[in-house]
Amino acid sequence: MNVVVTPAMLGQVIISGILSGALYAMVALGLGLIFGVMRVINIAHGPLLMLGSYTTYFLYAHFGINPLLTVPIAMAVLFVVGVLLQRGLVFRVVDAPELSSLLLTFGISIMLVNLAQLAFTSDLRAVEYITGSWLVGGLAFSKPRMIAFVFAAAVTALSFLVLKFTRLGKAIRATSQSREVAMVCGVDVGRIHMLTFGFASALAAAGGALLAVIVAIQPEMGGVWTFKSFLVIVLGGAGNYPGALVGGLLLGLVEQVASLFLTTQLSEVVAYVLLVLVLLVRPSGLLGGRQT
To answer: Which of 66, 84, 93, 272 could in theory staple to 101 by disulfide, Cβ–Cβ 3.0 to 4.6 A?
Structure first.
């Protein structure tokens, strides 16, 4: 199929890719934190995002709360859920082989999805808050995606500031670099693990809350976000937190460019092909491995 790519089409693709990529980066940052600090492969990251979406839906549908105001509420709720999961289950596999954490979090994922199905059924739900686009210079800026981009960029920037300049952030980075040295320096590693898992769950919840105003939600929506988050941290480098931003933006751009030339079904395959290529060519990621 021959496609003539005009400058307007290319500009629209770049805009759409950046808007999507910011959301990918924010969600993937949480997954990267868990792996970098705890060496835990968290398959339940996507279902935690799904719970964030349902938190927004529930607060909007039953209490009429502005969906944008539900973002911090969803983050707070899922922070508590993440802390409870870490203290109740995940802490048991922190020093175990990575396959153990994969199996445990896979079980948690199934549990969360089934609980959501019992509570909300498998019907599609939508938060119809804002629709349409802003037209600027012949380019369309989707209103819900622009709002999600602004929120995602702000949350991501704030997360990096916390990691870089606060005492808690420095403790998280120290634990990520060397747990033993962090303990010698007086860092309560167990507490850091708990707060990191809660913080990562809150980032997933923010992504879910923002996603609720963009697409219809349902209990099994988290699976694809788990995969895309893994792809983002593979692209940027496992444990490389700035790499999550680069990986998210790159994935968003690649997906949108692929949609120009391929059918919807084939464009979905591009992410999987990209994952295989990066693992073959540069397994440590485009920006290399662990950095703090």
So the answer is: 93
Instruction: Give the span between the Cα atoms of 68 and 64, in whole angstroms.
Output: 11
What DSSP string runs through the chain? Answer: ------HHHHHHHHHHHHHHHHHHHHHHHHHHHHHHHH----TTHHHHHHHHHHHHHHHHHHH---GGGHHHHHHHHHHHHHHHHHHHTGGGGSSS-HHHHHHHHHHHHHHHHHHHHHHH-S--B-------EEEETTEEEEHHHHHHHHHHHHHHHHHHHHHHHSHHHHHHHHHHH-HHHHHHTT--HHHHHHHHHHHHHHHHHHHHHHHTTTS-B-TTTHHHHHHHHHHHHHHH-TTBHHHHHHHHHHHHHHHHHHHHHS-HHHHHHHHHHHHHHHHHH-TT-TT-S-B-
Task: Give the C-alpha separation, 235 to 158, whole Å.
Answer: 22
Name the burial class of residue 141, with classes exposed (0-12), middle (13-18) and buried (19+) by CB atoms within 10 angstroms of its CB: middle
Q: What is the pLDDT along the chain (292 residues), one digit of tens a residue?
A: 556 667 778 888 889 889 999 999 999 999 989 988 998 999 999 999 999 999 999 999 999 999 999 999 999 999 999 999 999 999 999 888 888 999 999 999 999 999 999 999 889 998 988 888 888 877 888 899 999 999 999 999 999 999 999 999 999 999 988 889 999 889 999 999 999 999 999 999 999 999 999 999 999 999 999 999 988 888 887 667 777 888 888 888 888 888 877 776 677 788 788 888 887 887 777 666 555 5
